[in-house]
Amino acid sequence: xxxxxxxxxxxxxxxxxxxxxxxxxxxxxxxxxxxxxxxxxxxxxxxxxxxxxxxxxxxxxxxxxxxxxxxxxxxxxxxxxxxxxxxxxxxxxxxxxxxxxxxxxxxxxxxxxxxxxxxxxxxxxxxxxxxxxxxxxxxxxxxxxxxxxxxxxxxxxxxxxxxxxxxxxxxxxxxxxxxxxxxxxxxxxxxxxxxxxxxxxxxxxxxxxxxxxxxxxxxxxxxxxxxxxxxxxxxxxxxxxxxxxxxxxxxxxxxxxxxxxxxxxxxxxxxxxxxxxxxxxxxxxxxxxxxxxxxxxxxxxxxxxxxxxxxxxxxxxxxxxxxxxxxxxxxxxxxxxxxxxxxxxxxx
Amino acid sequence: xxxxxxxxxxxxxxxxxxxxxxxxxxxxxxxxxxxxxxxxxxxxxxxxxxxxxxxxxxxxxxxxxxxxxxxxxxxxxxxxxxxxxxxxxxxxxxxxxxxxxxxxxxxxxxxxxxxxxxxxxxxxxxxxxxxxxxxxxxxxxxxxxxxxxxxxxxxxxxxxxxxxxxxxxxxxxxxxxxxxxxxxxxxxxxxxxxxxxxxxxxxxxxxxxxxxxxxxxxxxxxxxxxxxxxxxxxxxxxxxxxxxxxxxxxxxxxxxxxxxxxxxxxxxxxxxxxxxxxxxxxxxxxxxxxxxxxxxxxxxxxxxxxxxxxxxxxxxxxxxxxxxxxxxxxxxxxxxxxxxxxxxxxxxxxxxxxxxxxxxxxxxxxxxxxxxxxxxxxxxxxxxxxxxxxxxxxxxxxxxxxxxxxxxxxxxxxxxxxxxxxxxxxxxxxxxxxxxxxxxxxxxxxxxxxxxxxxxxxxxxxxxxxxxxxxxxxxxxxxxxxxxxxxxxxxxxxxxxxxxxxxxxxxxx
Lengths: 348, 509
What we know:
The complex is a heterodimer of chains A (about 350) and B (about 500).
Chain A: H1 6-59, H2 66-91, H3 99-115, H4 120-144, H5 149-168, H6 179-186, E1 188-189, E2 192-193, H7 194-212, H8 214-224, H9 226-231, H10 236-262, H11 273-283, H12 295-314, H13 319-347
Antiparallel strand pairs in A: 1-2
Chain B: E1 19-28, E2 31-41, E3 46-50, H1 57-65, E4 72-77, E5 80-82, H2 87-92, E6 95-98, H3 110-114, E7 121-122, E8 125-126, H4 128-141, H5 157-170, E9 175-179, H6 187-202, E10 206-210, H7 214-220, E11 223-228, E12 231-237, H8 243-251, E13 273-280, E14 284-291, E15 296-300, H9 307-314, E16 321-326, E17 329-331, H10 336-341, E18 344-347, H11 351-355, H12 362-367, H13 379-394, H14 410-424, E19 428-432, H15 440-455, E20 459-463, H16 467-473, E21 476-481, E22 484-489, H17 496-505
Parallel strand pairs in B: 3-10, 3-11, 6-9, 9-10, 15-20, 15-21, 18-19, 19-20
Antiparallel strand pairs in B: 1-2, 1-4, 4-5, 7-8, 11-12, 13-14, 13-16, 16-17, 21-22
């Protein structure tokens, strides 16, 4: 081994630079192809989206109307907001099953407080804080007690839904919501629904968080390799707790907006919303194992799923068939992604 | 279960060996792990296999079990030539290997573990009562007092060890290989295992025993085969030889002259890092390790001597009770965050699972430890500005910092781990087997970078299982043995032989 004396050191040197340049060559060849293929993975979703939009506009002259498109954005936005929070959780290799229940609870809280004549900003703030707190508590349990997030948030799903029922003993609430509050969920700026704008703003904020802050960088690091992140001095547990807090916050926002749009709050709302959110995140290209994915993918996937539903409706397809078809399309898209992705890995 | 007793020497005829391996050769890229290696084990004996780290013991045993196929050579069991394509063939031929990391199923019961894969059953339905009764009988034979219904993972380590031995008996193994079965046991439990081994060989079974504890070999062994660099160097009868002879064989004709490569003077002055004592109960208890600024201190020891645990504990990655001083001031490290805040950096043993985030880019890996300062914005731009000159200084070869780090060669990957800490700026660098899997050029290159870092005033602690590497690069070598510090050597003054002696025996000659 390296009983390197002065003369052989020259040899060793030559050796190392030779091997190093060989590996550099290999390295130089691959990223180009890799970039190409990763573009394909991302582009893949965009292409599917465009194709479906084209098909929809051909099949139904109503599709490309301003009214339909603005409806579409309105329908996407609540699931979309939930999916944005979910993206951050999944990027750390976590999962949040409690978002639907949290949204329902916050929707109830905002309605109850508004019925009690609490000022609108305060009522909204309170509902948001509850969502944030619920998320932080679950995140803290998952991170410090080292329980799987799946189990913690499954317990949260049941318990928080129960809490939502308890607020009114199961009755809908919010018969006299102030009009300025209901305007948020039902109003338009020009022809753009306000909830759609909020969805876009939330998506942009989350994208900026991931790209332009240290916290965002830590999210990817934790999801990519938790142990390496820990040994690099990343505050792993705090990051894990924080993403669940954000997920609770976005869920609460969705809940508030639904109450506002429907001008009434129901404890049964958002049942199954966690699955829609997860579906959108995964379809958007994020790996459930963490470390890979982004807001852009989730954003397009949310729109894609809405367009699909819209298309089915315009074609007059029944909702039972819609469910089957949506499930199958989701599966097909993921198989295609996996196929392209594994090819990309083989190349590199 | 058939529990045929194998009569020593009679049935197969006296003089027929239980195991004869001869002319075994096995190469891996870069190393020749076995060179014409020979191993002969008689029925009813405990045969000990001795050698330093990397002497070829593990490879030989993996060939015996069927995990590896030899490039050439002959294996005969009870006089019959055999060839194993996989470990199942080895088990069928009556060979059981009990690895140091027990391959038991911790969540299953003892009985389930013993009969996994061959449970007594009728039409696919397990006969649980029968299995339990059989298991109880086998457990009695190994002197176990726990129930066959006990969950293996909840048993103490010694009882898990007995379970593994009992499992070898359920397959009626004639030859049982034990790889350091007592490394993690206390004295009373060691005696338990020895008793079982004695009863096994009394039944005519043979045991191949690998242990670094020579006093244990003395007590339990019948004969010894010593390997060095993959080749046979000696065979002894335990009764007719002494541990000192065995050590001499293991060490071999090491250079007795001074081994230090460098003639640079050792750094002097006040230590930067003083580790007064680090303890993890039952695992390590290491005192008085100090490193001066500009000094590279090597940590030598056998596998399991506690090098990795020690570095993890100092770095706050493993809970321990420790008292440290940094630049004369007491320092408390309870977590990795405490350690990094104090200017410590660790290059961990496994760069792929602990050192790097393989899916992320070079730039992101190199800057992950440096972006934690306010205002917590623009981590990419800031990280790239900080890490690019460091990566260039280390001579990392890459096409783009946006390339996934997993695409780099091992040597370049290791430099990225190093870059992570250099980008942050450190005072104390801990390296754990930093050159594992690197070619010679990359090794030399890595040490050159570490030396440059030391020359800038850092204190460096490096653990390695290759003594020659430490001798060539360290200013001082500390030897650990079974979780304790044995002593210190100056490679300018001590011979490699004397250091190796301390590594193996745990004593300073």
